[in-house]
Specification:
mainly alpha; 0% strand; disordered C terminus
């Protein structure tokens, strides 16, 4: 499959278009995003309950059974990881149908589970686990095994109320570069490979290979879009945090639970919007990079409509 060369400025166009995603059918798009969050939150709670139960099953002073912990917790964790690309694909499916003007509902988030491509989507989760293992090995080799032991020891000490002493890796500059490169390629592979599997009908090897090609060939446009997303997220997070604090104070005048509920609703809306922008931007980037039409020239920047 051809990987089109995208102008660097197109990253700005992707970001602007992603902000407008959902305007044609906000009920379906943002409803699917909330359903996405609820599904992941439920799975995360299940993982936490299992971890606590296995840790404290024998009493406060009992040591957890490592074999039992691995036999139950690890499969659940892997299940959570393989669900991630399926849910991302479902959200992209809802966005795609809404942008095309076709009828779609929030529960169509789970449409990929009825697709013959669901197995390949799930394999992308295993690919991410493989990338994480590889990245961990490289990070240990660069920073040194003692660094990570000291680092997690400092984290445990901080959680216990002690003053943490942050260790220094052997090659801090190289470690930072490797971590940035790792984050870029793992996110790019996931966000490109999901639509390549679901919409282009590619297999696991072909989709990962083409996603890597796109992440290298269009690194400029991808980084512009990613940088704008991160910067926008930071600014929006500060504003949303202030709004949630204000809502908490105002709601607490009625009842403390009202304030908590209002602040949680604001945070839920914020995370839901972030997911829509992320999945929508990735869908648009896939469409321009691998689609039949050449990417249009980016429009002049005239501000962002909220």
């Amino acid at each position: 499959m051809e990987v089109r060369k995208i102008p660097v400025a197109q990253g700005l166009a992707w970001f602007r278009a992603a902000i407008d995603i959902g305007a044609r059918n906000p009920k379906a798009v943002f409803g699917a995003s909330v359903l996405f969050i609820a599904t992941l939150y439920g799975l995360a709670i299940l993982l936490g309950v299992v971890a606590v139960a296995l840790t404290r099953g024998g009493g406060d002073n009992a040591q957890p059974d490592g074999v039992l912990f691995a036999a139950i917790f690890v499969p659940l964790f892997i299940g959570l990881m393989v669900m991630m690309p399926v849910l991302i694909g479902g959200l992209m499916h809802v966005i795609r149908e809404a942008e095309a003007g076709r009828p779609v509902r929030a529960r169509d988030l789970f449409a990929p589970m009825r697709s013959p491509r669901v197995g390949t989507l799930a394999l992308l989760g295993l690919v991410q686990i493989g990338f994480a293992i590889l990245g961990g090995v490289v990070a240990i080799a660069i920073a040194g095994a003692d660094y990570w032991q000291d680092y997690f020891g400092a984290v445990r000490g901080a959680m216990g109320g002690q003053m943490p002493v942050v260790p220094q890796p052997r090659h801090p500059g190289l470690l930072m570069v490797v971590q940035l490169a790792y984050n870029y390629f793992t996110y790019a592979v996931m966000l490109f490979a999901v639509p390549l599997v679901l919409f282009s009908g590619q297999g696991i090897v072909e989709s990962v290979r083409n996603a890597l090609r796109a992440s290298v060939r269009n690194v400029g446009a991808n980084l512009v879009a990613a940088g704008l997303f991160v910067a926008g997220t930071v600014v929006a997070a500060i504003i949303v945090l202030l709004l949630s604090m204000l809502a908490n104070v105002i709601g607490a005048l009625v009842h403390p639970m009202v304030g908590t509920l209002l602040s949680m609703l604001i945070l839920l809306a914020f995370v839901s919007a972030l997911l829509v922008v992320l999945a929508g931007g990735a869908y648009i980037a896939w469409r321009d990079t691998f689609g039949g039409d050449a990417p249009s020239a980016p429009r002049p920047f005239n501000g962002i409509e909220v």
